[in-house]
Specification:
Order of helices and strands: HEHHEHHHHHHHHHHHHHHHHH
Radius of gyration: 27 Å
Strand content: under 5%
Number of domains: 3
Oligomer: single chain
Distance between the termini: 15 Å
Number of helices: 20
Largest sheet: 2 strands, parallel
Strand order of the largest sheet: 1-2
Length: 429
């Protein structure tokens, strides 16, 4: 923080390391800090991507630094973590590769896109004629397949929904390519068609649509330019609860939906009581003794949901959520609802106790009472929208001296990055 209350970020340099082990990275960071005479004990925040060598709670880089400095609070940058976490399940990763291939083949030319739209229109007309679809304004619009883009969370959900909606039309287009396409196109179309009309593909298609339907609102909120921390944390809790409810109660519903989808399109449904044969890795004689139902329920359904829950719990621990919520009490936006003296005192007592002496903590409470009366209720305060703007305004009006302890809390809070889609955003934006 400079003398005018503006946040200043500095790039120290690029350091070569012999390996990416957490201990090696820690030593490199400490060396860089020492070069600029910066004390490790003054670290108040650290943020990394989702790699295991960074975030592991026991041996990751963040854990090693926290051992040396308890106030170096770790905030994981969510980015595309929820999508990436699901792809840690190998069949899911393979599914998204196939999904991209399908969209590329069908959307490779204007001719194929036109065929897709015409076929989809015919399908809609047929389903309406047999009373399988509702009619009304905005319903049953003709679209095209959406390509999933790794830098846009919602594109994955749109891609899944689009393929489910136009599944039959997509199959028809693939069959046409198999009949009249170039030799290479026919081979690709045949491979894709066989994979797409398998129970395995349809199951994962519906599974991921349900999971990403739950996580999409949270993802959208974390990408927004202006974040309401309280609402974001509420969405974290509701997302975790909904995923857990899906894990506990929605297996049967999903299976019914997938089987019904397959029956309407003449896709073979396996016998769920039959032994599961893993086609890769181990010989037939060394297969584990479990059923096809076990494979879909444990290896896919549970594993995919658990990967999401694990990622969210890792990104938003109980301490991290409490830190954000208490810090929001300083946010001048909606101050009438968010400013709470008790929350700011609790924030200092729990998270920044070493930055204040016992006497200063008592003085802070009294400063906050004056601050609430003289600053928060003032007309100028209502024009501020972020903690960063508040910091600058306090310096400009010399109130940073009058309320020096509150100003210290604000500076500490501004060291915290928020888990958002880009690394440039901070808690203040």
């Amino acid at each position: 923080m400079d003398i005018n209350g503006f946040i200043q970020e500095h790039f120290f340099g690029l350091v070569h390391v012999s390996d990416t082990a957490a201990l090696t990275l820690k030593e490199a960071i400490y060396s860089a800090l020492a070069h600029y005479n910066l004390d490790v004990q003054n670290i108040r925040g650290q943020g990394y991507d989702g790699a295991s060598n960074m975030r592991d709670e026991f041996n990751g880089l963040q854990a090693l630094i926290i051992k040396d400095c308890k106030s170096a609070y770790y905030v994981h940058r969510l980015q595309l973590a929820l999508v990436a976490a699901t792809k840690n399940v190998t069949p899911i990763h393979q599914f998204f590769d196939r999904l991209t291939f399908i969209v590329n083949i069908i959307g490779s030319s204007c001719k194929r896109n036109d065929e897709l739209k015409d076929t989809h229109a015919d399908d809609i007309a047929y389903l309406i004629a047999i009373n399988e679809l509702e009619t009304g304004r905005g319903l049953n619009q003709i679209g095209t397949l959406q390509r999933a883009v790794d830098t846009r969370w919602s594109s994955h959900l749109r891609s899944l929904k689009g393929l489910i909606k136009m599944f039959s039309a997509s199959c028809t287009v693939l069959l046409k390519i198999m009949d009249d396409g170039l030799p290479s196109q026919r081979a690709d179309a045949t491979t894709v068609y066989d994979e797409m009309t398998s129970f395995d593909f349809v199951f994962i298609l519906h599974l991921m649509k349900e999971i990403m339907g739950i996580t999409d609102i949270l993802c959208q909120t974390l990408q927004s330019k202006s974040q309401d921390i309280i609402n974001a944390m509420e969405l974290v809790l509701s997302t975790k609860n909904l995923l857990q409810q899906m894990r506990d109660n929605k297996w049967d519903d999903l299976l019914v939906k997938v089987k019904s989808f397959c029956e309407l399109r003449n896709i073979d449904i396996p016998d769920f009581n039959a032994p599961y044969i893993n086609k890769r890795g181990r010989g037939r004689a060394h297969q584990d003794n479990f059923t096809i139902e076990h494979h879909y329920r444990i290896d896919l359904f549970y594993a995919s949901i658990d990967s999401q829950l694990q990622e969210i719990n890792g990104c938003f621990s109980d301490d991290a959520m409490e830190l954000f919520i208490l810090s929001n009490a300083l946010n001048p936006q909606n101050a009438a609802e968010s400013f709470r003296v008790v929350d700011i005192c609790k924030l200092v007592e729990k998270f920044y106790t070493q930055d204040f002496t016992r006497d200063e903590k008592e003085q802070l409470e009294m400063q906050l009472k004056h601050y609430e009366y003289n600053v928060v209720k003032g007309s100028n305060y209502k024009n501020l929208s972020t903690i960063s703007e508040l910091c600058q305004w306090l310096v400009k009006t010399n109130k940073s001296v009058t309320y020096n302890l509150i100003f210290r809390v604000i500076v500490l809070v501004l060291t915290l990055p928020v888990s958002t889609a880009t690394s440039e955003r901070s808690f203040s934006t």
